[in-house]
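Complex 346.
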Amino acid sequence: MASIQLNNIVKRFGSFVGVENMSLDIADEEFLVLLGPSGCGKTTTMRMIAGLEHPTGGQIVIGGEVVNEIDARDRDVAMVFQGYALYPNMSIYDNIRFPLRMRKVPADQHDRLIRRAAEMVELGAFLDRKPGALSGGQRQRAALARAVVREPQVFLMDEPLSNLDAKLRASMRVQIKHMQRQLKVTTVYVTHDQIEAMTLADRIVIMNRGIIQQVGTPDEIYSDPANTFVAGFIGSPPMNLLAGEARDGIFRSEGIEVPCPRTVTGSVTLGIRPEDCTVGGGHLQGMVYGVEPTGDITYLTVQTGKRAVEIKAARDFRAPIDTPISIGFDLSRLYFFSENGERIRR
Ligand code: ATP
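Predicted structure with adenosine-5'-triphosphate bound:
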C-alpha cells in the first residue's frame, strides 16, 4: 500500500512562501495531477515528496510511514523529469538496468525486468542503441522504462512530456496512463497543461501561489469550479467571467441581462462557458470582433463594452467583423461568484 499524506506542509524560501499549509490525501494506486501556472509551487511539492527538498513545516507520510527524515534515495519513489538525462555512453538496455544495480536487485532478474519495462513502452527493438540514436519521444520512453523497471511504491513525474511535439505528447499521454493502470503504482504528475491534467488524472489539484484552490475529479473541476481562479484556468478558451450587478433576480452588466437566483445580489461575477453560449437568444448584445473557423467548430469573439466574450459557434458560422450580434446563454449553466472570487452556491 502506498498512499501519500501531506499534513500541513509548508515550504519557505527565506521570507517567500513557496507552498502554504498544504494538506492532501493521495490514495493508493491513484493518479494525481498537480496543475497550476508557473511558480505556483507544483515542483516544490513534488520535490518534497521525493525528498529532494525539506519542508519547513508539516509531515509527509508515504505508505503509512513518516518520511520527513528519510533520504531521497531511501524513499521508494521513482522520478521522471522533463528532458530526463539518459547516460549517453550506455545502451538503452544498460540505462534501464541502472536503477536495478543501484538498488542491488539480484542480477539473474535483470534481463527479465529490463525487457518487460522496454516492452511496456514499445522499445523492445531498441535496447542495443545509444540514446543519441533515438528520437526525442523514444528517449522519453526510455526514461519512463528506467523509472518503472523496479516497480517503486510511487512514481513522481514532473512535466515529462513538455519537450515533445504535440502529436508525440498525445500518444505518450495514452501510454503513460495505460502503464500506470497496468502497474497500479500511485502517481503524482506535475503539469501546467490542462489537457494533460484532464486526460490523465483520477483527481486534479489546482494550485495558485502555493495554495490549493480546489481538489476534484476532472469532471468536478470543470463543471463545479470553486472560484474564479479555477473557472478561468480550466477550459479552452476558459469560462467567460463578466463582472456586474445582481438585484431582484436579474444580473445586469454592459450589454448583458440575464435572470439569476434571488439569493445572488450586489456586485458579482457571472461565469458562462463558451460552449454554453449560442448565436441568437438575446442575453448579450455586442459586436462581432473575430471569427476563427477551425474545421469542427468556429471560435467567435464578441465585444460588449470593453470586454471580449468567447463563444464556440457552429462549424459553419460566419459573420463579418463589427456587425451587431445577439448571444443567448444556457440559463441552466450560469455560475455566479462573489466579489472575492468565491463561488456563490444556490
Ligand atoms: P513551473 O511550472 O514554472 O515549474 P512550479 O509551480 O513548479 O512552476 P515551483 O518550482 O514549485 O513552481 O516554485 C514555487 C515558487 O517558489 C516560485 O515562485 C519559485 O520562484 C520559488 N522557489 C522555488 N525554489 C526556490 C529556491 N530554491 N529559492 C527561492 N525561491 C524558490
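Helices lie at 42-50, 92-102, 110-120, 136-148, 166-183, 194-200, 218-223, 228-233.
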